## 1
Amino acid sequence: MIFTMVSFILIIDFKISLINLNIPFQINLSTISKSHVDLYNKNVFQPNKHRINILRLSNPFTIELIFSPPCLLFILKHLIHLPKLHTLIPSLIDYILNSAIIFTQVFCLKKLKYCTLTYRVKDNKNVLSIDFDQYEQSSIEYLIINSPFRYESFQKLFIYLSKLRHLSINFLLGSNHSQIDFYPTELKDLNYVFFDLHSIHFHQFEELIKHFFHHIKVLRISTFNDSSYSHAKQWEELTSSSMPNLHIFDMNNSYTTTMHRFLYLCLSGQFRSKFWMEKQWFFDHQYDCHESSNNGIFYSTNSYRRKDHTFHLQFDHDIDSYLKKHGFKSVKHINVCGKRAVNNSVIYFSNVIELTIKNYGKIYYGSMLAALHQILALKQLKKLIIDCNDFPTQQVINLICLTPNLRFLK
């Protein structure tokens, strides 16, 4: 009873204070408990909808209580009643058949500048392209799509996003055989692009660059089992002719087949020519040295001074001696993976202060501590995360003994 009365008084005081303040709202309901959502909605959210400029919703019960009925269309339509909303980060739990319903409502928000969209589809390979004919110009400058998006939808998307500065798509889907006739759209403000590419051949990606991305300064892409991105000469021609302002080039190509391993072993040397050295864009080719595995990765190293790095202990590293010594000084956090310790072509991470250990098997070949000593200074570590179920307790104790500056252990 005492607790309830105190809570009521605090809510009344808080409500009066809000009424007397003329400041914008930033609301994050992703961590609030279910028992408090209804009270929060009645006393804070509903009376101040006109002042909200940032809204983050992720818990399904939160959405259901604030927006009724809990239907995706109704949820998105309610956003129009937040006239000052400039940041939107919806994470939708419903499976959707056509993502156009999301973009329709989001593009109608006149003040929206930043948007991160996360939605679910039942089949990533059968995502529909989006028709943007009915939409007005959008004010969005930063767009992040953490869900499947069709390559064919780009032409109309960019017509309505003339103010776009930053674009990130974590599942860009196409067809290796599709041919789309794009026409040029100048996006003068767009300077950052990231794509995780699926079933998009290099010649299709090249069309995107030539038609839309002439002004970009940062390009990051990742591919899987696609050798069409492994030829240095075509990259040299594309960056020189179509991306004259490109400053940061970050490429991550992973593979699991014998053919791709052979191609990267043969072609990776082309990325060490004068062109790449002058740009200061360097690459590392890591591949599993075990005979039964064809796993590997070809990726940029210090092209954008990355602070995080994943290091595979069982991989060989085809990398220049210059990079071994100078290319990883910016790395502060390293993810170490693998069940075997390989000593050849070791890279040293001199400034690492955070270590995460993953994929540790019950049978580990070689000394884990010896392998770690070869790649980093354990005494510098301030944070240690062991993300595996089979890591021996004695190894944990040994690591702690060798990390006198450790402040965080998980």
## 2
Amino acid sequence: SGTLKTVVAGYVSNGGRLIIRICLTPILIKSFII
């Protein structure tokens, strides 16, 4: 579960919208399919 740290680190360093979008897209796809 280092993914959350990666998201937070990316958000803090880069503004991280792209990273968050990449991380959230599979979740949205899964919830949409299920």
## 3
Amino acid sequence: MAGAGWRGARGGRATDCCRREGRGRGAGRLTSLPPRGSEEVGDLAGGRAAAATWRSRIPTAAAWSSQPLTPGVFRVKMGSQAVKPLRVFLLMMRVWRRHLICQRGQQPFLTCIRAVGACPLVFAWVRWAVDLNSFACQSLKYNHPQTEVRNEKADEFLALLKEWAVLCEKYVHQDVDSNLAGSEDQEDADTLDKDEFVVQKLIGIRYDGTGRKKGVYFKVQWEGYGPEEDTWEPIDNLSDCPLKIREFVQEGRKRKILPLPGDVDVICGGPPCQGISGFNRFRNRDEPLKDEKNKQMVTFMDIVAYLKPKYVLMENVVDILKFADGYLGKYALSCLVAMKYQARLGMMVAGCYGLPQFRMRVFLWGALSSMVLPKYPLPTYDVVVRGGAPNAFSQCMVAYDETQRPSLKKALLLGDAFSDLPKVENHQPNDVMEYGGSPKTEFQRYIRLGRKDMLDWSFGEEAGPDEGKLLDHQPLRLNNDDYERVKQIPVKKGANFRDLKGVKVGANNVVEWDPEVERVYLSSGKPLVPDYAMSFIKGKSLKPFGRLWWDETVPTVVTRAEPHNQVILHPTQARVLTIRENARLQGFPDYYRLFGPIKEKYIQVGNAVAVPVARALGYCLGQAYLGESDGSQPLYQLPASFTSVGRTAVQANAVSVGTPAGEVVEQ
């Protein structure tokens, strides 16, 4: 029985060590690991002490009020700016929704179009991914097959990193052979009793911070049982199997399944702050960080404090600069400065980088004092303005000065993005189909390119699955009532519920019922015009059941597709925009496939950072890594070649975009 382990049902035996006594798989004799300490895994092993140290240096709210932000893109410089070589790992994280970790190779280009960008002399691909949403994990794993995808919370991920450091110190860095030598002898001497089970292999690791037994769990593969019988067992219950644990930890460290402090070059993330949402009636304006819904920003900074990367990039909504006098934005800046990082804060508009949506977001750069602080890329496209920056942070907009006259490309519109896509019905069951036509614009030719043409090497030299097919061109299926309503919305620019029978626009642009028209009802007996549409924003809104048009843009791609209080109807079809149409508005290439129910796919697209924005930021990151920018100025003008990367195959003639020929709305 050498090399086996054990499994307990009513009792069990560990062939690595000795006998297990317990009831059920989760029971057994407990054996504690050695106590953790800084002497075992470095200065950041405990995590809490380090966090307490940098938190003690964060200025108070009173200090913030007495020290207003400096004009221009916010920047704090600390120390020299000598450039060091790029480390082996590039960690990219979105703390609540998405975490991406990339590893450097030897190829001559740096590209991860959703995360890093394109810059000469360095190459990166997604190495790890962590996401709370299981469907997002499926999408990440499918599109990044070399990635270690983890489905867990950010705080549990951080706890696991700390425990992993302890395990690596015990089983990798120390000489454990002498301590475990007697285990194999004991293993051969004992025989299995009835109802004893054997551990085949440990195949996974996670941290459970909510269960009855908090701590590290291993996923156990049992000898003689199929994958459906694999179970998660707490590490204490496997204390009699150190050989199996050592085997897993040594192999895991060799494969780099988790990063240790010193492994990481860059941490990127977008910690959500749902506590500041306008939909939250109980927002804590005095102390926003005491709201549990805002704690993810604290977790994000704790991860930075533990792994201590060279660079940090945080993305968030503009509300962090609006709510409570910008409390959360100032907190994030202060955290980085307290950890001795240089810091910059800027607001970027997605439409300025080649998309038909506005979408303003906050991006915070951080860099160690020994590194060059990355700049922000200046716009390359004109944009249809749909809102402004908070007054107190207006100087943090990433834009050209009013006195400058840059040569920008023409703003992209909806017709540029998806006028080539085939007509689909309200109910479209197929998530893979043929295009059925040729692209009509340069954007459409570009977005249809394959992985290699876009410098995406997630599949190595292989072309990757599904290329050349149209994926996820499915709309959210409207219920029968909403479908009847949508079919009666006119096919014209600006159409919405106000064009339905029985609605009249009165004084001050407020809708009211037309007294001369009897109220119209649907086949279900419900009214054609719902009461919520009439009362939305006190009757002044144009959004309910609003129809988009080809020469327009959208304010922001969101995570839902219901037409009740947003303009999301297709210009000429009786449906909402499909997942693929929304994905194009975010800049996702057509080969990028999503998983999960249709509503979950909309969520994944709406939560993402716009691809062209990420790519432009990645280019500036590459410039800083290579020492090709000095970091003294906050803004960087992208070279002319940047906007044409990968577009040699998409030389297109100018095409006038209007309503596609033959498109007729369903009546």
## 4
Amino acid sequence: YIGVFHLMVGFVLGAIDEFRVGHGWQGALYGKFSWMIIMVGGFMFCYDFYKEDSLHLPGLVLVSIGLVLLVVHLMHEGLPLAISIILAPIEAIGLLSSTLSYIRLFAVGIVGVKIAYAGNDMLYSAAMEGFQDGGTGILIGAIALVGWFGVQMFAWVLGLVSPNIHAVRLHFVEWMKQFYVAEGEPFDAFGFEERFIEVDKTT
């Protein structure tokens, strides 16, 4: 749900940019709205396998409509019809991989919890048994307790840092490519070029 919503916001922003400063309503319709239809149709198609709500056929219809619009968009970009028909489904499959990339947030959370659970199950219990046995068991318990603390700290740092890193990666890679175009003028920190005024360079 998070991935679908986040990418949909990116497509909406891309459609607004296309309409304002891009190719007008045609660019917004064929270039971005087509992806929205494919996203919604693909979500309905996949959701039908989970809930069985008879969304299978409507999802396929929406995906087909989106693919037709995407073919028209590729033809407007100068590609022949045959190549556009081949590339449109390939590009649509790429959208699936972008959506599934958001599962990494769920996976990172599970990994942190499982590491902490393993530390509690293996090291903490061994430390408590060592302290209860006495003698050399106290030394073993102390070592196990230090190891348990290290595992817990590692799980804590992983749970604190890793989701932020993956969230930034999803934001810049999966999301921003839906509307952001890296273009403009090269940055020149100390450059000087007059544009709107006349400058006397002889003084």
